[in-house]
Every structure is written in structure tokens, then in C-alpha cells.
Amino acid sequence: MGTTAAGVFGILTGALFFVVLWYALTLAARWMVFSKAGIAGWKAFIPIYSTYCLYRIAWRRNYFWWYLAALVISSYVNSDIERLTEAGQAVPALFGLLSTVLGLIILVLNVMVNIHLAARYGHSFLFGLGLMILPPLFTIILGMGASEYRGNPAEGLPPRRYYV
Fold first, then answer.
1. In Å, how far are 83, 100, 139 from 93, measured between CA atoms?
2. Which tens digits make up the pLDDT trace of 128-141?
3. What is the 3-class SS of 41-75, one letter each residue?
């Protein structure tokens, strides 16, 4: 193996390690966030259900269904765009517009759920944006820090004191 190939292998291995560590930290912190809200921590490990529980903790379950619908339809539209592009056919402008609008809906819902999550733990709007930009760091602060869950009356979740 040449030095260039070894260097590329080292970079890819380091990147993979970083991605796995990032994901593991996010899951561990989310477990603690769920526990503080009175929801079983193991639910953080189930991909779609975890997001459902997060919407329940932070905002409202109804918005989760809008998020999921936008995600599924966006996936379908984007796969159609890719299929048409690979076949050398023109992509209808409506597909491009729909893909953009759905992407914006998903982004807005993600921003809003993170802002609401920060508020449920007594943090500011900027903390919610931090949850979007650096999820492991800010989720660790929520889950493992002194933040207390203030409840979500709309979803029937009372405030809870959590002692580590």
C-alpha cells in the first residue's frame, strides 16, 4: 500500500470513528433527555419512534405526522427526480419545486421542535438552534446537565424533577 492510499485510509477511518462517536453520544444524551421527561430511555434507540417521542416531549405529536409525511413524500419525489435524470429525461419543474418546498417544511419543523425542546428544559431560542447545529453537545447539556423538564401540558406530560 502506497503512502497516498494509507493516508486516504487513515482519513476515512478517522472520519468513520468520528461519525460513530457522534451518533453514540447523541443516542446516550437523548436517552437521558427522555428519562428526564418520564419516557423510557430505550425509546431513544428506535429510529422513527424516537422522533415521535421527541415531538411528544417538546411540542405536539400532530406535527410529527406532518414531518413524517413531508419526509416520505420528499423521498419519493427525490427518487423520481433521480430516476428521470439517470434516464436522460427532463425533470418537470413541479418536481423541483415540490422537493424544495418539502425540504423547507422539514427544516422548519426540525428548527421548531428543537426550539420547543430547549424551552421545555428552560433554555432559550439560541439553545434550540444549538440543538440543530451541534446535537450531541447540546443534547448532553439537556440530558446530563442540571436542566429540568418543565412538562408539556398539551401532551399530558407533567414537570419532573430528575436526580442523577
1. 15, 11, 39
2. 999 999 988 999 99
3. HHHHHCHHHHHHHHHHHHCCHHHHHHHHHHHHHHH
- Tracing cell 436517552 back to the chain, one arrives at 31
DSSP string, the chain: --HHHHHHHHHHHHHHHHHHHHHHHHHHHHHHHHHHTTS-GGGGGSHHHHHHHHHHHHS-HHHHHHHHHHHHHHHHHHHHHHHHHHTTPPPPHHHHHHHHHHHHHHHHHHHHHHHHHHHHTT--HHHHHHHHHSHHHHHHHHHHSS--B--BGGGTB--B----
Kindly report the pTM of this predicted structure: 0.83
- Residues of the chain with pLDDT below 50 are none
CB 44 within 8 A of CB 54: no
Under 8 Å between Cβ of 73 and 112: no
The pLDDT value recorded for residue 66 is: 96
Nearest to 141 by CA among 32, 24, 19, 20: 32
Distance CA 96, CA 59 (A): 30
Convert the pLDDT of each residue in 41-52 to its tens digit.
Answer: 999 999 999 999
